[in-house]
Design brief:
This protein is α+β, with helices and mostly antiparallel strands and 158 residues long. Helices cover 47% and strands 17% of the residues.
Length: 158
């Protein structure tokens, strides 16, 4: 019965598309290149060193898939997964993770229980022409310094 319902829906959809003269199309998505991700990770390392920070840096594409990662000498081992999770959360929801952090704190929302959302600072989207093309995740310092570094790195994208 379910297979029959699915077939009827598919047929109706195809008929509606044909009647409207539309066809399926492919949509392209702008994404951060691997080269740009490596450059951002390098830039983050330079800035962090100048600020006497020892951190982990993750850079993802627009879908939250890891493109580049650096763990600076002396960064805590626990910061590896945290930096990646911050970058993934920012990219997948196209919003800086500090927004989730603020909502969780101010509204006492259990937003962190939603899969993929990390209410923490240090996950910042990278944009090009107003579109999210990737993200940066920073972990290993205090909240404000992580956030500032992530913002500075994302802003350095050209």
């Amino acid at each position: 019965m379910a297979a029959l319902s699915f077939a009827l829906i598919a047929a109706a959809s195809s008929s509606a598309q044909a009647a409207a003269g539309t066809t399926a199309s492919v949509v392209s998505q702008e994404n951060l290149s691997t080269t740009a991700a490596l450059q951002l990770a390098g830039r983050a390392t330079e800035i962090a060193s100048s600020r006497d920070m020892k951190i982990c840096i993750a850079v993802t594409d627009a879908d939250g898939h890891l493109l580049a990662f650096t763990r600076m000498q002396g960064a805590y081992a626990g910061c590896v997964e945290a930096s990646i999770a911050k970058a993934q959360s920012a990219a997948r929801f196209a919003i800086n993770t500090i927004t989730f952090y603020d909502l969780a704190r101010k509204e006492n929302l259990a937003i962190g229980t939603i899969p993929g959302i990390l209410p923490a600072v240090g996950g910042v989207v990278v944009k090009h022409d107003g579109h999210v093309i990737g993200s940066v995740g920073i972990s290993g310092a205090t909240d404000l310094t992580e956030q500032k570094l992530a913002e500075d790195v994302a802003a350095s994208f050209r």
